[in-house]
Amino acid sequence: MNRIEKVFQNLKQNNEKAFVPYIMAGDGGLETLAEKITFLEKAGATAIEIGIPFSDPVADGPVIQQAGIRALEAGTTLRGVLAAIAEIRPIVHIPLIFMTYMNPIMAYGIGNFISDASGSGVDGLILPDLPAEEEEIIAPIAEKAGIEIIRLVTLTSPLERIQEIAAKGKGFLYAVTVNGITGARKGFKGELGKHLERVKEVSPIPVLAGFGISEPEHVKEMNQHCDGVIVGSRIIELLQSGELAKVEELIASSKIEEIKL
Amino acid sequence: MNAAYALPDERGHFGTYGGRYVPETLMQAILELEEEYKKAQADESFQKELQDLLKDYVGRETPLYFAENLTKYAGGAKIYLKREDLNHTGAHKINNSLGQALLAQRMGKRKIVAETGAGQHGVATATACALLNLECIIFMGEEDIRRQQLNVFRMELLGAKVVGVQSGSATLKDAVNEALRYWVTNVEDTHYILGSVMGPHPFPMIVRDFQSVIGNETKEQYLEKEGKLPDAVVACIGGGSNSMGMFYPFIKDETVRMIGVEAAGLGTDTEKHAASLTKGTPGVLHGALMYLLQDEHGQIQEAHSISAGLDYPGVGPEHSYLKDSGRAEYESITDEEALEALQLICKLEGIIPALESSHAVAYALKLAPQMKKDEGLVICLSGRGDKDVETVRARLGGKG
User: Fold this and answer.
1) ipTM for this model
2) Which is it for the CA torsion B283, B285, B290, B294, positive or negative?
3) Where in the numbering of this chain does the Tryptophan synthase beta chain-like PALP domain appear (chain B) (predicted)?
């Protein structure tokens, strides 16, 4: 069983919610990656989404764009990140999921990349510029190698399409909570809770909410309607400013059990 | 292959190129656009509305002009100019902007977003939006804003909001990134008028079709003047819209050589060029698989050209396919050669072409002497050079 599936099975048994932080590999130098991963695991992260920088990240807002630029300026390459992951994998127990765009993978060679990622212990892939229509270019090879393609559904996806995507889904379904790009937001559409519940209803796999989630209140709000959250831009900001206690607080906010009256 | 040429396939692929590599949030919008476009193609009233506007508002058909002086100078094949520079707004871009603005209207979308490099597509889109009373926001790289001040002011006069983009190289590529981000955020009431034969399916097909008026007219006009088809058609390539519009109607006419001219900038042996087909490798950018300028790690490289409209590190998926299949040929011309050609055609024909189009002129001047005198070639003069006069003056140090 893939590590992602296993971790979600455990969460379900313990009636817990998932918290998946996103970090940009190479932001602050690739040598800081292992330290960040072990810190997040210790703080209670369910899995870690590791961004691979790309020069033209159209799905990302300013915070992740800047983190990507810093990582590229520090000389970060996909090859380098794979080597760093291979090194730390033996001491990290939670799933590690790469988030990147198609082009760095194509430049590496899809087959080579999947084989090296599998060898390094990468468990999943999130590719924001790979909709269902194009996924056959990589999904079959990845899944054969035991790497799960985490599919995204959005507020603009019709329910029928969400159902089709969820049916093919592996690991968990990434429910994008805003129309837009990554980055902190003050609030969400009033209908979001209902949307997430509809997604959950048709999805045979866990549903995690992501994009725009930045505060413990958001985490608690989302967790009422889905199986957990993904937080990116805010984690990057907090790690950059060294506010580690706030990261721990954010992750802990997903652990507090709801008291149902 | 050519008799059966029917691309893109139903999934928007040209061979392995093209496709729809976009965030899921945009999928509904591009599926809806494809659906609506099919309906519009079959709708006579839509076609008539577009034809009427092209005739009475844009001023089509544009002339196919026999450039006798240029022909004598080159000393070979007859050189004709397809005068897209005489369109309303001064370039071929309006053919597509008007068509897509009408599509947006059909889809009930009252807001338009677009990117622009040289500003020609921005001006054309702002114009179409003014005409059809659509709200218009244009993303433009700060570097291009600096190079094309007048076009910025034109867009603003036409009622568009121009937003400067500082990220990356602050040119066309970065303007497309921001326009895509804006579209993802406002997709429910906004249509993206992409300006070239790039981006996710159905854009490369739609833009090609709207621009095919160039090649269709050329074919008819050339037949009328010469009683045969031209031996070659030559057009410049940034993203590739004027060239695709010129080429497409000739794809099945195998005797017609189709030659796309990329910007070699300071030279294709330097790092300062925009020759994606000549020097690039396939990859995914802005929603499509196509030839790109990129490093070994798949990071997109900055393009360079004296002409803002060719300053793009990719080239449309259909051109990528036509290069691999060998049906079209791709050459490149340096900044210096384009500048020389621009001055030459000014003096010989009294026509000031855009720096972009000057690349096609420069290559045609190399090609014509290698051809026979009874052969003919057509240059797509995609735009007029008024917008470039300042750049050219600065380069020539005030001398003509």
Assistant:
1) 0.96
2) negative
3) 59-383
Q: Token digits for B220?
A: 């008819």
**Is B7 among the domain residues?**
no
Residues in chain A within 8 Å Cβ distance of B284: 101-103, 106, 129
Tokens of A83: 């080597």
Enclosing domain of residue B118: 13-47+93-202
CA distance A203 to A110: 28
Residue of B nearest to A152 (CA): B24
Q: Does domain A3-254 have CATH number 3.20.20.70?
A: yes
Q: pLDDT tens digits, residue range A58-69?
A: 999 999 999 999
Rounded Cα–Cα distance for residues B146 and A157 (Å):
40
CA A220 – CA A82 distance, rounded (Å):
34
Are B279 and B132 members of one domain? no
Does residue A179 belong to the interface with chain B, where contact is any CB pair within 8 Å?
A: yes
Q: Chain A contact for B292, CB < 8 A?
A: yes
- Residue B187 domain-assigned (yes or no): yes
Unique residue bearing structure tokens 């060898």: A119
Is residue B258 within 8 Å of B317, Cβ to Cβ?
Answer: no
**Percentage of chain A modeled with pLDDT above 70:** 98
Q: Which residue has the tokens 């954010």?
A: A250
How much is the pTM?
Answer: 0.97
Q: Please check whether residues B161 and B223 belong to one and the same domain.
A: no
Number of domains in chain B: 2
